[in-house]
Amino acid sequence: MKHESIERLIQKHLDRETSAEEEQYLHRHLAGCPSCEKFYQELARTAHDLMLLPEDRPSPNFNARLMRSLGVRKRALWKKLAPVFAGSWVLSALCLLASPIPGYLLKESVFAGPALMRFFDKVRIVVITIGNVLAPFAQTTINPIHIAIGLVAIIGTIFILNKYLHKEVVCRT
Length: 173
Description:
The radius of gyration is 38 Å and the shape is elongated. The chain has helices at 4-14, 20-32, 34-52, 62-70, 77-98, 101-111, 113-139, 144-172. Among the domains are: 4-52, no CATH class; 112-173. The protein starts with a helix and ends with a helix. It is built from 8 helices and no strands. Residues 168-173 have low confidence and may be disordered. The chain is an all-alpha fold.
């Protein structure tokens, strides 16, 4: 057939993707061209026959039966490794308890309690400051200038806090 554009137009028509102008052009051409009309009828009949075919799907356990018949067993890697990880975790916990590290950490944490409280207060201040800086931006539209100002404020706050914490650590040692 030498009318490739009409073939494509027929396929578009059968897929219901043609516009009104394309429909008119196609019907005018089909009325005057018996070979294109025959091609259209064959495609339309094939499409209709395909729609009448029953939809066949495999049963829900098809994959499992096929794998079993092929001799392939499904093994989850985590099921093999779970006992190894559990055993290593228990062994490492026992080694840690038998070492002097827990006693040392407990003693250090008791003496370092006030310093830890000051550290957490400073962290809380930083988080509140960041929240206060970001709160107006969350309530309005995002503006790049606001983001830049917020980032500069956060970086400045962290820099100042770092200098303060560094001085405290240097003074304690």
